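Hey,

Quick one before I head out. I ran the complex with 5-O-phosphono-beta-D-ribofuranose overnight. Inputs first:
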Amino acid sequence: ETNLYAPLPPSRGSGFSNAYPLVGVIMGSDSDLPVMLPAARILDQFEIPYELTIVSAHRTPDRLVEYARSASPRGLRVIIAGAGGAAHLPGMVAAITALPVIGVPVKGSSLDGVDSLHSIVQMPRGIPVATVAINNGTNAGLLAVRILAAGNPLLIEAMDGYLKKLEAEVLGKVDKLVE
Ligand code: RP5
């Protein structure tokens, strides 16, 4: 039997799939991968197990339903879904699973990603998708960490450390400017 959730591409040591993933990182096409990889890298950084694969709302609708239905029973806690164009993927996943869904609008070639942004952010009443900025896989990863951190003091500490690092980076630049 083929494993629908086989990682893509194969593991390079630190990432792409773990035995017990907490976060599902999915995208409509392999062309979305460059935008979604930063989300995976954030999860690597916080040592959060995740899986990464392609689920297309339009081209693989049955796979979408099966993925979303099985997500919670399989132990996922958060889903990050990226898509471009008429980006139904995050909204459809959120319609099927009760897990929190983070949508990443992917910038396509014609409308600069505004089409994806509107498709994802303008979810009708009842089915929320937490939408990050266009092409901002990093923020999707960070939001997933924050959702998991709500019940995990160690992750809160790790996120505080991340914020302190950002602050130090900016303050370092301020010091350089006034030197
Ligand atoms: C969407 O269509 C995908 O999420 C992707 O952003 C876009 C283009 O897909 P490809 O034609 O590159 O496969 O479904």
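The helical segments are 33-45, 61-71, 89-96, 114-121, 137-149, 153-178.

Talk tomorrow,
K.
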